[in-house]
Here is the input.
Amino acid sequence: MYKVVLIYFLIFTTQASSSIQDYIYPYNEFSYSNYGTLGLIQNPNARFLEEGSLGFAWTHNEPYLRGSLIAYPFNWMEVSYQYADINNRLYSLVDEFSGSQSLKDKSFDAKFRLIKESKYVPQISIGFRDLAGTGVFSSEFLVASKFLSPGLDFSFGIGWGNLTGHPIKNPLQEISDRFELRTSSVGEGGELNINDYFSGSAGYFLGAEYYIPRSKGLRLKIEFDGTNYKTENDIPLRQDSKLNVGLLFPQSKNLSYKLNYIRGNTLSFGFSYKLNLGKKNSQTLSKQKQTPIANTDAIKIVTSKSKSNLYKASLKYLSDDKFYLQHATSNDNSLEVVLSQTQYRNPIISSGRALNILNQIAPKNINSLKVSEINGGIGIYSTEVDRGSLSRGKNFFLPPKPDADISFQPFYYGGVNDYEFNPKAKYPAFFHTIGPDLRSQIGGPDGFFFGDLKLKSSSELLISRNISVLSEVSYGLYDNMDDLKLPSDSILPHVRTDIVQYLKQSRNLSIQRMQLNKFGQFSPSIFYKFSGGILESMFNGYGGEILYKPFEKNHAIGFEAWKVFQRNYDQMFGIRDYNTLTGHLSFYYTEPKSNVTFRMKGGKFLAKDSGISFEFWRVFYSGFRLGAFFTLTDISKEEFGEGSFDKGFYFHVPLEIFSNSYNRRNFGWGLRPLTRDGGAALIHSHPLWGIANSSNNNSFNRHVADFYD
Here is the structure.
C-alpha cells in the first residue's frame, strides 16, 4: 500500500502540462468505459464533459450487453442510467416465469468532482455505481486523474464493492468500525444502501489513456483492471489477466467506436455518441435574419398621419414576422401593442424583434415602445424600451441595460376595453399536425422489446383567446404485442400497472387526450386553469389549478385538484369502476445563477396514497432541460413493490438547436425504471407552470444579450 501511495505521489507531483488543449488534436473529448460512464476500459476516471452534455453509450462485453444514458447537469457532476442484459443468467429463479429471457438490470450511477485539476494537483472525483439498483454492480470509488504530458492522461484510484480486484485493507476502518463489513446483497433495487457505502474490503486500480499524435484522435488505453469478477454477478467470471488494453476510434467530435481486450480472454466492443446541448445555439447568428423593412421613411410619414394608419401598419408588419397583434394603443409619444406568437421560446428574442419592427414604422414623435405578450389569454410579460436607446444599441450591437435602457414588467391582461385598436380575431381556429407515434414496453420475461407504431393526430381548437380543446387520436399500424402477457402484481389500485392491458387493447383506434381548457388570471401574478374531458391515456376527469408566480421573485406556489375516473383499456370513451379525488400543493424555487428549479409537491396521488414528490431540473442557456424526481408516500416498500419508491429522470431538447429556424417545439424523453402504482400523479396537458414560465424577471436578465438576435 505504501509503495502504491509513493508512486502515486511521485507521478502526480511532476511538473507536466495539465491541459489537453495544449496538444492540438481533433476529437479529443473524454471517452466512456465499458460501464457507460467516463473512464478507461473497466476502470473509472475523474473526468467530466461540459455541463449540458448528453451522451449515449453501448457496449458488448460478455456476458453483458449494456446501454447507458449519461448526462452532465454541471461541470462537476455526471449522472447516468444503466440498462444491462446479463446473458449468463435467467430473468428470475423460476424457469417457467423467465422463459428464454436473460436477466435485465437497471441502475443509476453518479460521479462528483471534489478537486479540479491544476498544474501540480490532479483532478479528484468520488463516484458510485449501481447507486439505487439491485446491487449487482454496486461499487464506490475515489479516483484521481492527471495529464502527465499533453497527450497522456493517467488515473489512479481506490474502490469498494465490486472494485476490489486488487484488494487492500480499507483505510476507512481506521476511522470507524462501521466500514469493516459490507452486508448488502443483490435485491429488488430502489434503495440507497448508505450504511454499506465505502465499507468492506477496498482495492486499487490504475491506468492511462494515450492520445496518439497525428491520428485524428485515435487513443490507446491500458489499465490494471480493478474489477472483482468473483463478487460481480452471482456467477464468477474467469480472469486470465488483470491487464486490459483497448483502442478508441473517434469518427467525429460526437461519435466514437471502441475495441478492447479484457480479462485476458474476452474481446469487447461498442460505440458512444455525445452532444453538448446546453450552450447558446451556435447557429443562432445564422438563424432567420430579421429582414429590414423597405421604405421605412415613407412608412413613417404615412403612420404619422393618423393612429389608424399606425395600428394597421403595426398589424401588417408584425404579422409578416409571425407576430399576431391582438390590441394596440398610442398617445402623443408612446406606442403599446399586445401580441401573441408561437415561434420564439426566448422572450428576449421575441420582444426584441417585435420592438425592432415597431421602431422601423412608428412616426418620429413616438419616444417609447412597449410590447406585451399573451399566451392562452394570460398576460405573460411587458417589455418597454426608450426608442433612442434602442436605435443606439442596435447600431453598436450593445445589449440594453435593464432598468436603464429597457424595463421588464409583469403584465395583467384585462381584455379589449383597455385598448384603442382591437382587430377582430377569427374564432374558432383549428390547428392540426399528424405524424408517427411509437409506444414501447422494454424488458420483462415475455420478451425484451414490445411496441407498436401508430399514426397520431394532434390538434388544437381555439374557441376563444383563453378557451381551447386539445386532442390526440391515434391509429395502430404495426405491433408485436401478442405475446405480451405479464399481469400486474400490485396490491394497490392499478392506476398505472395495468399498462400491458392498455397497450394491448388500444392497438387500433384510440384517444390519448381530448381536454377542454380555460385559462385566465386574477392579477399579474395569479393564474388559473380549469380543464375537463379525457385528461390523459388512463384517466378522464375535471378540475383545475391556480399558480401564484410573482414576476420579480424566484419562488412560486401552486395548487391543483382533480376528480378523475379510470378509463377503459381500449382508450375510447368508456370508464371503469375506479375513481378518486387527487390534488397537490406545490412550492417552486429557482436558483437564479444556475437556473436550477426545485419543486416540492405534496398531496394525494392517484392510488389514494399521500406523500411528497421532489423534482429538480435545470434549464440551460439553449433551452435544453434536464431533470429528475422521486416520490415518497405513506405506503410501505412492500406495498409499493419492486423499486421501493417512484423515481425517474427526463430531458427536453429544443428542436431549434438542430435547425436554422426558430421554433418552440421540444423533443422530450423520460424514464421510470419501473412502472408502479405508488406516487402516480395525473398527467394533464398544459400545466400552468409551462404556460406562465416566461413571466419571470430572471429569464429576461439572463438572456438580455440576445436582444438583437
In short: The chain is about 10% helix and 45% strand.
